[in-house]
Write a structure and sequence with these properties.
seven-stranded mixed β-sheet; single chain; alpha/beta; Rossmann fold; about 400 residues; four-stranded parallel β-sheet; binds pyridoxal-5'-phosphate
Length: about 400
């Protein structure tokens, strides 16, 4: 086991040509469009942040309101739940609204969805259970902030605090599996990888929306990237990063890459991260973790999946994971170019910086900006020509904590 203690930037020694999953389709996006409250989340451009960080453009995908929840996780939880329920039914039901779907699934009741979470995933699973008329049993690690537990319980779920870290919570949730209980986990373990794979697939909706937004912009201004030069992703178990790699890490012989529509020829040949592949338009993927839960960094350095022992106490709660997801690992280990470990002070500063630009980012949501800030202060920053995409994956999931970070007292 390897523990990391200080902020670090590491060039991934395992980086290469990642495997990708086929088929890769818009089916998750089409599914999400049928959920209540669906709307694409905003992709915002912040010129003054780009100027400050020394890059051409900073784009931010803002997931602070996603399907009625304050984080992106519903994308994976809902799609994985749906696919798993289709498996239980044995056929794909025909439905228009979630109420129709719940009706079609009535024969399964009483039925329970179970999940381990450090907050966002469990709340999303609880919402799915409520929408479908099922029960939810959600397990959280000790030390989970009360506001996050209350949000999950507020969806009607039973919440159990497990005496241990996220890995222990995952192990506890796995015991729930049975004929009338589905475990919806965002990480995999031996013998359980189909659901976490669907979770990764579900996250692709975020990337399809970004593609569509960039294509719309490109249609009005020619000198703009259709794919960013770099994508900065917060990493917990690596499922979101796997989705990013699976989406943008693929060679597409007939796609927009091959047709020369990607990028605007702005890459230089200086050897910086954003310009290393003048003939390859796949973005550089940069993964960000908290210093004491940098399990993907520890794993790429060890050359295999490695556990970073807890307790993991970062305020970036969604990233407090000790072990990478095995199902995500092949994509993440080959597809991430640079790994960045940031501390909580940097995350707090990123929360404040985002707020100053009008973006509500929780501590985990701000991690991508924290990572980019560290990277740009380093001796091999992303180049001035780079268009950089930050995935801001959550809003203020602990609102009092968020106010405190902004220096505001809640009385
Ligand atoms: C808000 C937020 N961002 C990022 C992540 C990291 O995602 P993953 O665990 O798939 O790497 C999580 C995980 O729970 C999260 O809640």
């Amino acid at each position: 086991m390897i523990a990391t203690a200080t902020e670090r930037i590491v060039a991934n020694p395992l980086a290469g040509d990642p495997p990708v999953w086929e088929p890769h389709t818009r089916a998750p996006l089409d599914f999400h469009r049928r959920l209540p409250g669906y709307a694409p989340t905003p992709l915002v451009v912040i010129p003054s942040l780009a100027q400050r960080l020394g890059v051409r453009e900073v784009l931010v995908k803002v997931e602070s309101t996603r399907l009625g929840l304050p984080a992106f996780k519903m994308l994976g939880a809902s799609w994985a739940t749906y696919r798993a329920l289709v498996g239980r039914l044995g056929y794909e039901p025909s439905w228009g609204t979630v109420a129709d779907l719940a009706e079609q699934l009535r024969s399964l009741r009483p039925f329970t969805l179970a999940a381990a979470t450090d907050g966002n995933h469990g709340q999303a699973v609880a919402v799915m259970a409520r929408l479908l008329g099922f029960d939810a049993r959600i397990f959280v690690p000790e030390g989970t902030v009360a506001a996050r537990i209350a949000s999950i319980a507020g969806e009607g779920a039973t919440v159990t605090v497990v005496d241990g870290d996220y890995d222990a919570t995952v192990a506890r949730s796995a015991q729930e599996a049975g004929p009338s209980c589905l475990v919806i986990s965002d990480t995999s373990w031996p013998g359980y990888d189909q659901v976490p794979r669907w979770v990764v697939e579900g996250y692709s909706t975020m990337m399809w929306e970004i593609d569509d937004a960039l294509a719309r912009r490109r249609a009005s201004t020619d000198d703009r990237a259709v794919v960013p030069d770099a994508v900065i992703v917060p990493m917990g178990v690596g499922a979101l990063t796997a989705a990013v790699v699976n989406h943008w890490g693929r060679h597409d012989e007939n796609g927009p890459h091959a047709r020369g529509e990607i990028g605007s020829g702005r890459r230089d040949d200086s050897g910086h991260a954003g310009s290393e592949r003048p003939h390859d338009s796949r973005p550089v993927v940069v993964g960000v973790e908290p210093v004491d839960a940098a399990c993907i960094m520890a794993s790429v350095l060890a050359g295999r999946i490695t556990t970073v022992p807890g307790p993991h106490r970062s305020i970036m709660a969604g990233l407090n994971c000790g072990t990478p997801s095995p199902v995500a690992w092949p994509l993440v280990s080959a597809g991430v170019r640079t790994l960045v470990a940031v501390d909580d002070d940097r995350a707090r500063q990123a929360v404040r910086d985002f707020a100053a630009f009008g973006v509500e980012a929780g501590e985990t949501g701000a991690a991508a900006l924290a990572g980019l800030t560290l990277l740009q202060s380093h001796d091999q920053p992303l180049p001035a020509t780079a268009t950089v995409l930050l995935l801001c994956t959550e809003g203020a999931t602990d609102r009092e904590g968020w106010w405190r970070i902004l220096g505001v007292d809640v009385v």
